[in-house]
């Protein structure tokens, strides 16, 4: 009988302890859902090559961008800064381009709806990077600096009238989405150029 009572008491104690643990966990979880003070900054940080410097300097850069585009943080982020919106995903690509070119957003953007004279060139470049499945830093490494592949591309742009004909012109010589691999015609053009240069 004593063993039976001990077993029964142990079960009761275990049930009480598990209920207390559940309640304390619920209380702990609920404290995270309270509305955040509007003046406080989120503690989450991300590795982003566009933003440089201390936390204060980075926050200043974010404020500059939001002011330029006339948007709030929730335009690109959820409240906890753990998920990017569709606009945030676009912004990440734009920031990667900015880093590759060594420029700020206002190099191409006047505001959220207006652009500088660089707009057409930027649109052509984004189409090209999508067509060829590469990032901007495949060719660019600063405002006026190009990678070796970027220098080759620049030569092709000049000889193939890319500025007016755009990315589709590139596919005459290149295989689509193959990191600029050449097709048969492209190899012929390259070999002819090497012959002209005495290579």
From TrEMBL:
Gene3D superfamilies: Flavocytochrome C3, Chain A. Residues 1-29 form the signal peptide. InterPro entries: Multihaem_cyt_sf (IPR036280). The keyword Signal applies. Keywords: Signal. This is Tetraheme cytochrome c protein. It comes from Kuenenia stuttgartiensis.
């Amino acid at each position: 009988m004593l063993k039976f009572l001990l077993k029964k008491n142990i079960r009761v104690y275990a049930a009480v302890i598990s209920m207390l643990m559940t309640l304390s966990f619920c209380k702990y979880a609920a404290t995270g859902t309270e509305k955040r003070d509007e003046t406080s900054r989120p503690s989450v940080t991300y590795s982003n090559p566009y933003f440089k410097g201390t936390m204060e300097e980075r926050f200043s850069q974010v404020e500059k961008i939001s002011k330029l585009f006339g948007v709030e943080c929730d335009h690109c982020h959820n409240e906890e800064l753990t998920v990017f919106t569709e606009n945030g995903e676009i912004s990440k690509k734009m920031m990667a381009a900015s880093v590759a070119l060594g420029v700020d957003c206002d190099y191409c953007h006047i505001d959220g709806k207006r652009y500088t004279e660089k707009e057409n060139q930027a649109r052509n470049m984004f189409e090209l990077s999508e067509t060829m499945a590469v990032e901007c830093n495949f060719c660019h490494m600063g405002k006026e600096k190009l990678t070796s592949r970027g220098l080759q591309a620049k030569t092709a742009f000049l000889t193939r009238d890319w500025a007016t004909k755009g990315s589709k012109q590139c596919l005459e010589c290149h295989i689509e989405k193959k990191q600029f691999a050449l097709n048969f015609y492209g190899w012929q053009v390259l070999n002819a150029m090497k012959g002209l240069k005495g290579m």
